[in-house]
Amino acid sequence: MLSNICSIVKAAPRVRSRKKGALRLPLVRAIAGFAIGALLAACGGGPYAGYAAYGGSAHADAAAGKVYQPLAMGNLWKFTCNHLFPITDRVVGTYHVKTHLVYALSLQIPSSPTKSTYVIQLLANDSKGNTWIYGYLIHGKVHAVTPTEIVAAKPVPYRYYDYPAPMHGTITRQFLQFEDTNRTPLGVFWVAPYFDSDRTHNYGYSLGRGVMEEDHGPQYKYDCLIEKYVLH
Predict the structure, then answer these.
(1) Which terminus of the chain is more solvent-facing, meaning fewer CB atoms within 10 Å of its CB: N or C?
(2) Domain residues for 142?
(3) What is the per-residue pLDDT across 71-95, written as a single tens digit (0 to 9) for each?
(4) Are residues 110 and 220 in the same domain?
């Protein structure tokens, strides 16, 4: 009986499918992942071999010491949203906030196929691989905020990683559970997704690569899949 179950589990492809606009179900996937992990512990392999029950992967192990948000001048991530229009996030410069060297990450946030808002965050990675926000670049000037961890090296499921907004207030950010991206032109990636502004936006970070998929809402209206990325 167990051998039959093992053969079925081992044959199952490790790809999830999500319809446009459909809510992701991280808790369901976490339970399923835990069950599959337990089965494979007994079965001893299959396409999930090397993956923890949740949160880890063979890719993550191989990328030990890397960060979820690589920061260097010239880094860029180009996405195609809904197979219709492109957006690009890129590191556009370096600055100092007090004694901290920070990198200016320009984020393109679409509200329609022809209209986007650009937000430039001032970020730095610490020695443990956590990414911190130190401020924003607004009209060419540094606007400092209270330093806040924005991407964790070891994110805790369902924890909030809220951070200061550009002008005033706070942007809510929550990590739910690790998951696969939708299939992108570069393949499927195991990511740590963070949901911002009451899940209006989300960013899926792949260890050592950066964001491989981002969604912009409401209700994940624009699904933006990585098409090209350049790291220095």
Answers:
(1) N
(2) 76-230
(3) 999 999 999 999 999 999 999 999 9
(4) yes
